[in-house]
Structure formats: C-alpha cells, structure tokens
C-alpha cells in the first residue's frame, strides 16, 4: 500500500480494487472497483479523467489524510506498540551466533 500513500502525498486521486487496506489508507481519496473487475476499474479511471474537479477534491482529501490521521505524529504510538508486541520475548542473534551465519539475522526465542 506504499503506492497509495505516495499518491496521496502528491495529491493524486486513486482508483483501487476494493481492498480493506486501500479503504483504511485512502478513504474518500479513492474510488473503488469490485475485486477482479477490470472493466469497472477501467470505467472508474475514465470517469475521473472526465472530471477534473472530482480529481482535485480527491487529491486534497488524500493530502489532508496524510497530514492528519495518517501522519507519523498520529500513528507512531500504535505502530511502535505493535513492533514492541511483535518483538516481545525475542532476542536478536549476536554477530558470533553460528545460527546467524546460516540463517541471516534471525531472532532467537528466549
């Protein structure tokens, strides 16, 4: 979904298949085609090409989401908590660990 966020930063409207993460990230900065419906996807692109005002509105919505609810300031606490939970009870393998040489950068459960 990095592309979706990058398009939003640049103020671009988004056409996406109806994926959960796209809706979470883009919200109203995107229009959504049903999954695997390429004809509807193409139709949505054509509709946006013919509507510069809607494209501009959607681009502005995307930029507002990036600087607001999706900003690092607003998301850092939950993201860092998720990393901490994922790494709980994990210890990085040391450089001299023979498993590291074979597996490359693995973590070892305590």
State the gist of this model:
By secondary structure, this protein is of the alpha+beta class. The chain has helices at 2-9, 20-26, 38-49, 52-67, 72-87, 98-103; strands at 14-17, 30-33, 90-92, 107-109. It has a domain at 1-76: 3-Layer(aba) Sandwich (Rossmann fold).
Low-confidence stretches: none
What helical percentage do the residues reach?
55-70%
CATH topology of one domain: Rossmann fold
Strand content: 5-15%
Provide the gyration radius in Å: 20 Å
CATH architecture designation of one domain: 3-Layer(aba) Sandwich
Q: What's the CATH first level of one domain?
A: Alpha Beta
Task: Furnish the topology, listing elements before pairings.
Elements: H1 2-9, E1 14-17, H2 20-26, E2 30-33, H3 38-49, H4 52-67, H5 72-87, E3 90-92, H6 98-103, E4 107-109
Helix pairs in contact: 1-4
Jot down its keywords.
13% strand; two-stranded antiparallel sheet; alpha+beta; Rossmann fold; 110 residues; 6 helices; 4 strands; elongated; two-stranded parallel sheet
Can you describe this structure?
This protein is α+β, with helices and mostly antiparallel strands. A two-stranded parallel ribbon has the order 1-2. Strands 3-4 form a two-stranded antiparallel sheet. The model has no long low-confidence stretch (mean pLDDT 88). It has helices spanning 2-9, 20-26, 38-49, 52-67, 72-87, 98-103; strands at 14-17, 30-33, 90-92, 107-109. The protein starts with a helix and ends with a strand.
């Amino acid at each position: 979904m990095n592309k979706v966020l990058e398009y939003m930063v640049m103020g671009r409207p988004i056409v996406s298949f109806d994926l959960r993460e796209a809706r979470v990230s883009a919200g109203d900065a995107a229009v959504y085609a049903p999954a695997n419906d390429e004809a509807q996807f193409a139709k949505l692109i054509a509709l946006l090409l013919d509507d510069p005002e809607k494209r501009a509105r959607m681009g502005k919505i995307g930029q507002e989401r990036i600087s607001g609810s999706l900003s690092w300031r607003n998301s850092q606490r939950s993201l860092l908590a998720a990393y901490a939970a994922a790494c709980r009870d994990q210890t990085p393998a040391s450089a001299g660990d023979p498993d590291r040489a074979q597996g490359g950068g693995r973590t070892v459960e305590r």
